[in-house]
């Protein structure tokens, strides 16, 4: 499966962005999907995952209550709605698929498929 992330950009603190991840090849409905983020010098950090049916979602503690993951399998696309953005949300965001433990895969090492990343910058 190939993953293409988009939607990043520059936003002021308190603002919102929606990231998209379009899947091609095998359709996205085959996989649990997720988002991670990374800043220079740090490991890729778990953000959110969604099960292949969309029935279960998980969010990292640092984004819980602010970010929402969803999917539209008709469009083979997964979304990350980010609200109440903070400066510490600044990172490159990567979409991913097929975690070794399904939607409960919280380590970047559990994933074989990655998109190219999209930069999110939050200014004060």
Polypeptide structure, described:
This protein has 124 residues and is mainly beta. Helices cover 0% and strands 48% of the residues. It contains no helices and eleven strands. The strands form two sheets. Strands 2, 4, 5, 6, 9, 10 and 11 form a seven-stranded mixed sheet that branches. Strands 1-3-8-7 form a four-stranded antiparallel sheet, with no helix packed on it. It is globular. The mean pLDDT is 94.
Question: What is the structure about, briefly put?
Answer:
By secondary structure, the protein is mostly beta strands. Helices cover about 0% and strands about 50% of the residues.
| Overall mean confidence score, pLDDT | 94
Q: Using the CA coordinates, give the radius of gyration.
A: 13 Å
Task: Using the alpha-carbon principal axes, give the shape.
Answer: globular
Number of strands: 11
How many H/I helical runs? 0
**Helices and strands: which structural class?**
mainly beta
Taken as a percent bin, the fraction of beta residues is: over 45%
Q: What is the terminal separation in angstroms?
A: 37 Å
What tags apply to this protein structure?
single chain, 124 residues, mainly beta, 7-stranded mixed β-sheet, 4-stranded antiparallel β-sheet, 11 strands, 0% helix
Topology, element by element:
Elements: E1 2-6, E2 9-12, E3 17-24, E4 33-38, E5 45-50, E6 57-59, E7 67-72, E8 77-82, E9 91-97, E10 113-114, E11 118-123
Parallel strand pairs: 2-11
Antiparallel strand pairs: 1-3, 3-8, 4-5, 4-9, 5-6, 7-8, 9-10, 9-11
